[in-house]
Amino acid sequence: MTHQPFDDRREPARLSDIIAADEAHPTFGRQVMNGLGGLLVLMITGVVVVLLVLWKSP
Questions:
Q1: pLDDT (tens digit, 9 = 90+) per residue, 2-57?
Q2: CA–CA distance from 57 to each of 44, 45, 46, 47, 51 (Å)?
Q3: Whole-angstrom Cα Rg for the chain
Q4: CB 3.0–4.6 Å: which of 9, 18, 26, 36 could bond 30 by disulfide?
Q5: Tell me: the pLDDT tens digits for 19-30?
Q6: What is the pLDDT of residue 21?
Q7: Rounded Cα distance, 35 and 27, in Å
Q8: Alpha helices per DSSP H over the chain
Q9: By the 8 A CB rule, do 34 and 26 touch?
């Protein structure tokens, strides 16, 4: 029961967004390019790992 005063002051069960003053709002095209760029990096990393495993196997 000692926490009851703290619970009364708390915001009711929803989270509020914290937005910075200089937060960027990327366009849809920028988000697509970031997604494709990340996908390309992951694919290249996977191919490099597979090639290293095949190269080291007997």
A1: 666 655 566 556 666 777 778 778 899 999 999 999 999 999 999 999 999 999 88
A2: 20, 18, 17, 15, 10
A3: 24
A4: 26
A5: 777 877 889 999
A6: 75
A7: 12
A8: 4-9, 28-56
A9: yes
Pair of tokens at residue 32: 């697509």
- Residue pair 36/44 in contact by the 8 Å Cβ criterion: no
Residue 48 is which amino acid? V
Dist. CA 42–CA 58, nearest whole Å: 26
Q: How far is 28 from 48, CA to CA, in rounded Å?
A: 30
The pair of three-digit structure tokens given for residue 44, joined into one six-digit string: 């290249």
What DSSP state is assigned to residue 10? S
The length of the chain is: 58
